[in-house]
Automatic annotation (TrEMBL):
Origin species: Haloferax mucosum ATCC BAA-1512
Record's protein name: Dioxgenase
UniProt domain VOC: residue ranges: 9-134, 157-280
Amino acid sequence: MADHTPTPGIHHVTCIAGDPQRNIDFWVETLGLRLVKRSINQDDPSAYHFFFADTEGTPGTSMTFFPWETLSRGTVGTGQVSRTAFRVPEGSLDYWESRFDDYGVEYDDRIERFGETVLPFRDPDGLPVELVEVEIPADDPTVPWTEFVPESVAIRGFHSVTLWVADQKPTEDLLRTMGLTEAGTEQSQGDTPGDERTRFAAAGPVGAYVDIVPTIESSRQGHGTVHHVAFQTPTDEDQHAMREAVQSHGLRPTNQIDRHWFRSVYFRASNGVLFELATKDPGYTSDEPLSDLGGRLVLPGEFEARREQIEAGLTDVTIPSAESAEADD
């Protein structure tokens, strides 16, 4: 038995976008997620960092973006998270297809995957995303945000990520080390025809699945691609033990980095995918009350002293609200 706590699943997924206003409009108004944090890229404060999640920013619900406006469109391929999937309640895909028609969202035909119905679509930057119908248990930890969509159909955190890799075995070994177990294999749909999709499952209720699909398709980072995927290591002790376990694979994880709302360790897997380990605390309400999440530009740590300079370099954005949307109709 492993001497470290298995990850309960995905913590967040961070992607690259283009226009920041278009990014906010889509993820807040069209998809109905809450902007729980409006900040900056702590490694590049000239760019925003947006966090979209459920009402409380529950671990396993945060889709985050770096809107790097000067970058070009990326190419999804090997060594990347190729698909990010969200859970939605059973029977809600008719609603989502109708909403996508109303908002001009590009989507594909539904597919069946491991006994579940999946609706693939793309965000305005071309990022491949999916909605997966699941039964939401009564004790589910997510708290749906209902400003733009009804609770009965609202997104309820992550379902899974799909990794496109050239060599499956090192990735499978890494996921087993992180505490995931193989849950099945089937012929892949929506990827390279004829390839097999292998699913690994964590024990947590949200963001439990990681699918692996082999491909040699070339990739390039840019708009519409995933920057990294973060997995939950709830406490510092969990994270330290997982860091040592990852290191035993010959990988080179960073030291712990304070990201203000969680503490992080990063490493690039042999498949090329950038992984992060993220703690549960202190969370998004550590610097804003729950009722005001996302309402202002938060500049963590030493960045606050540079607020005037940083704000001058950022594009002005407006956060959609249901009231303003109704006024525009």
